[in-house]
Amino acid sequence: KFLIGLTPRPAHRGYLVDPSYVDMKNRKVPSTPIGIQLCTGLIVTEVLKVLLERGGVKAAPHYQLYDAYRGILRKGYIPFGNGNPLQRLKYFFGRMLYAKMSETATQKEDAPLSSVMEQIIDQARWAPSGDNTQPWQFEIKSERKIIVHIPEIEQDNLYEFDHGRPTYLAVGMMLETLRMAAASHGLALRWALPKDVVWDGRAQEITVNLRKLKKTVSDDLLDYVPLRSVNRFSYQTKALPDRAKKLLSDEIDELFDIQWFESPVQRRRFSRLNAAATDIRLCLEKCFKVHKKIIDWTAGNSREGVPAGAVGMDKVSLLLMKQAMKSWSRMDFMNKYLGGTLLAQLQMDILPGHKCAGHFALLWKDGGKKDLAHIMQAGEKLQRFWLQATKQGLVMQPSMATICFSYYAEQGIDFSGGNLALANKATRLGNDFDALLGGRLSDVVFSGRIGYPGKVKTPERSIRKKLLALLSPSPSS
Ligand SMILES: Cc1cc2nc3c(=O)[nH]c(=O)nc-3n(C[C@H](O)[C@H](O)[C@H](O)COP(=O)(O)O)c2cc1C
Fold first, then answer.
1. What is the ipTM of this complex?
2. 116-224+464-470 domain in CATH 3.40.440.10?
3. Is 229 in the pocket of ligand 1 (CB under 6 A)?
4. Residue 39 C-alpha to ligand 1 middle, in angstroms?
5. Residue ranges of E strands in 165-241
6. What is the pLDDT of residues 383-411, one digit of tens each?
7. How many A from CA of 399 to the centre of ligand 1?
8. Domain-by-domain residue ranges, the chain?
């Protein structure tokens, strides 16, 4: 009520970058010294007018709003003030809107975090993971030691190729976030896998040790952790400046070569590969089961999945998809007889694949088979790459399915349960991807598209499980 009464015609809503600062439950909203100074100037002017008995002073429900950022002055009058029926309607919708925004308020609704360890983990939980699965539990052993538990990789999830490569990349991204957060508390972090670690998809335990640093090290990328969010819509086609590309490759060049695909022809080639992967995955029942589990159809942000509104499709196509996703037989029918995957390919790959600054692929520098620790180190670099992109005002979308099905084809793995047509499509995809990468398919670790955000503002995003849900009790506690 206070907010809507204060700003009858808000001009600032469109440029609120980080909704996580709107925390209605705790009655906290962002404000800047600039706004406060402007208000002070205005009030003092009105007071002067009263004191000098000069100039008319218009009391509420007259209002005037000045937005210095947009250079907009709005003046008006609300008949009956806050009792006005229109104003009441605004409260109703305002409450819904702000409640939705407050969902992202980072854990502020909970009790204050008691230990430094909890504060560090609280920041690390904003690391991304494939389909927002957040495959980690934290066991705080002491003020200097955490055990991170990674569950067994789901055998039936086809996206978890190479014994869970996407999961372990995400784990590396989370560990890098943990490291940055620890450094801001003056702690250096080291993680280790057990010496006899076996990488076959079994559950893993990572030991994280912290050591006091002489002084606190601030990593400016840490501020971008909650702001970084995948964008699956169309971007601007404006090219990346060389400086941005250099800053991005500086984050990863210890481990990776980066290949850029920026010309219209290259973008088209890459988006066709992504579309081919979409065509394959939408025809697989195992993938359907994953989609059904992770796509969240309840409006708003999603704590444990991906909100339907963020998958990159327009409202009409989403309605169609929702109907088709009611059962596998429906989906299968649509795919076979109604050209079901074409619309998805067009909206999720072809159009956005063209509407971006470019695609990129990260390839191991020195080739060869890597172990689990290498994959997690790759994840660490990847998180820095994505955060640097966010810092540069860029958005990204990974194209992991393209790597996934190319991998199956390259390794001769039967992912399709003997479906020859799908196996052939994957072989073609692998060959085309290999050709695009100059024969380096076996080196590719990660790929995606990147660019400056387009007109579509993603209204919904994946948020994270609450901290308490991620803490596992220590057996000794
Ligand atoms: C290793 C990894 C692979 C991913 N692969 C894809 C992908 O192929 N397509 C996609 O749209 N998003 C992909 N994502 C993005 C995640 O779905 C997204 O980061 C997650 O749902 C959390 O959402 P947020 O980025 O908005 O915080 C991937 C993320 C990670 C960490």
1. 0.99
2. no
3. yes
4. 42
5. 187-192, 204-212
6. 999 999 999 999 999 999 999 999 999 99
7. 9
8. 2-102, 116-224+464-470, 242-451
